[in-house]
Amino acid sequence: MKHIFLLAAFLLFVTGCSKDIEEYNKPAAYWYKRMIESVSAGNLDKADNYYSSLQSEHIGSPLLPEATMIMAQSHLQYEEYLLAEHFLNEYIKRYATPSELEYSEYLKIKAKYMALPNPRRDQGLINEAITAGNHFKMKYPHSIYYPVVDTMVTRLILARAALNESIALLYERLDKPMGAEHYHNVRKEEWIDWNEVEKADVAWYKEIFEGDGTESWYAFIIPDTQSVVSRNSQGQVKTSDEGSSGKE
């Protein structure tokens, strides 16, 4: 009886492990089918692996262009925007025909835009998305996606302005007037009437931890003291002790 139990346990173990046996040397249609099944099940990690096998074993397969676009759109749908952009770059570089470039580049800009749920966190990505959007508008002035891209670029410009204003206020609190002046004046688009721009509302659950962009809720905890040494715009030195002064 004991031997039967051990044999049954061993068979169960082998059966369970067999599901994870490494697969290789399969037809392109096999990898494509498994990739589609994984995407349909919402398992994009497995889908990525099957796509990699398809690309590695069948680099010239006619299934690859469609598989690449499917992976790009799947990651976009599941809000995995950096991975979506990766597959779009692959599609644009290797497979897109001239007639497909417009849509592919539009999706790439959309992925950049959607990757910015909180623009105050990534100045570089904002600038990169604005540059890509403006390039698309110049390249495809009659595109059906032009109004959408133009709206995204406008919102990103407003987000960048809000970010610059937050940085300027931070420099003011740190008693750094040169930095504050720079960010108050940087990239002021003349076609925007900034007096009519309303500040974006911050969700209450984010404001608790991040503040409203001008100050944080925990500001009252921080002692109201100046730095021991700070430079003003003339390159002079100020100290926290009003009765003393210093020079380099």
Using only C-alpha atoms, the radius of gyration works out to 27 Å
Strand order of the largest sheet: 1-2
Query: What is the residue-averaged pLDDT?
Result: 77
Tell me what portion of residues adopts beta-strand conformation. Answer: under 5%
The main β sheet shows up as: 2 strands, antiparallel
Task: Report the span from N to C terminus.
Answer: 89 Å
Number of strands: 2
Low-confidence stretches: 13-19, 225-248
* Helix content class: 55-70%
Name the helix and strand elements from N-terminus to C-terminus, one letter apiece: HHHHHHHHHHEE
Instruction: Name the overall outline.
Output: elongated
Q: Specify the number of helices.
A: 10
Task: Describe the structure in your own words.
The protein is mostly helical and 248 residues long. The protein is 60% helix and 2% strand. The chain has helices at 2-18, 28-40, 44-57, 64-77, 81-94, 98-114, 123-139, 146-173, 177-185, 204-210, and strands spanning 229-231, 237-239. The chain has a two-stranded antiparallel ribbon. It is elongated.
